[in-house]
Amino acid sequence: MFPPFEPHRWLKGAHAQTIAAAYLPGGRAPYRARQHRVPVGGGDEVVLHDDCPDRWQAGDRTVLMVHGLGGCHQSAYMVRIARKLNERGVRAFRMDQRGCGAGLRLARRPYHAGRTEDVAAALEYIERQCPGSPTTLIGFSIGGNVSLKLAGEVGSGACGGLDSVIAVCPPVDLEACSRRIEHPSNRLYQRHLLSALYKLNQQRQRLVAGAAVIQNGRRPCSLRELDDQLIAPTWDFAGVADYYQRSSAMHYLSQVRIPTRVLAAGDDPLVPVEQYGRTELSSQVRLHLTDHGGHLGFVGRVGRDPDRRWMDWRVLQWALEPDRD
Known about the structure:
Number of helices: 10
Radius of gyration: 18 Å
CATH superfamily: Alpha/Beta hydrolase fold, catalytic domain
CATH topology: Rossmann fold
Mean pLDDT: 95
Number of strands: 8
Low-confidence stretches: none
Shape: globular
Order of helices and strands: HEEEHEHEHEHHHHEHEH
Structural class: alpha/beta
CATH class: Alpha Beta
Largest sheet: 8 strands, mixed
Strand order of the largest sheet: 1-2-4-3-5-6-7-8
């Protein structure tokens, strides 16, 4: 249902797409959202940033946006897409996952790639705030894995007003993605993410009584080690392999019963495209795989979309599409 992606002629490489998308202008906007604090268990809370258009009415569509690893409500793609949705009358809730963004002081435990309970709590909260309004769940990177896993867990049931999902560059096989990010060509990405996540954990320890700590007390050398020393013990997994196995959305996609789209790039440097070949998809899940685009990149040719942000407009297209056949 989506038009083909044609990369900008100066940004055809995977790394060029990934890096340019993060730093090109367009990800800033005046902050006008209303904040909602949502309890998610264990005394922790997450924050929803409610961007509500003036003309929005009860019963109109809402979306819940879930950021990727190291992100928050201020991530450029979250800001850009929320603004575009608002311009078309869609109410957008940008979620700060546990311990992120405005929720830094509100959680003792960090979020993780399979923590669907928190997203479910956010969806149910949105339904109470917006009764009768359908909700599209939009997940980016790890947020996409959480979103797809939740859709599979829900199956034919209900979760708030959830009626559709779109995931962009989701790492549905966490084990494979962990190995990929340790490849020498991805050293800079791993170093950047590891530094950001380690600093975030240190901040939580200073600000939140009883915050989760890295098990062996030293700075991890890889994201896999961070998952093994922080995420797995904090959330009672048997170890990092158990965490990856139980949290990977690939094991749930055959159970999805609501219209779902997955956008992915064949040259994504962080998410190996081979994972989709090992994943059974239900008839409700459609994969749109492009040759180029990098990780959350998709900076297109001039003239194809108003601002060359192909990813944004496809997410928008799906959220606005009234025909869910």
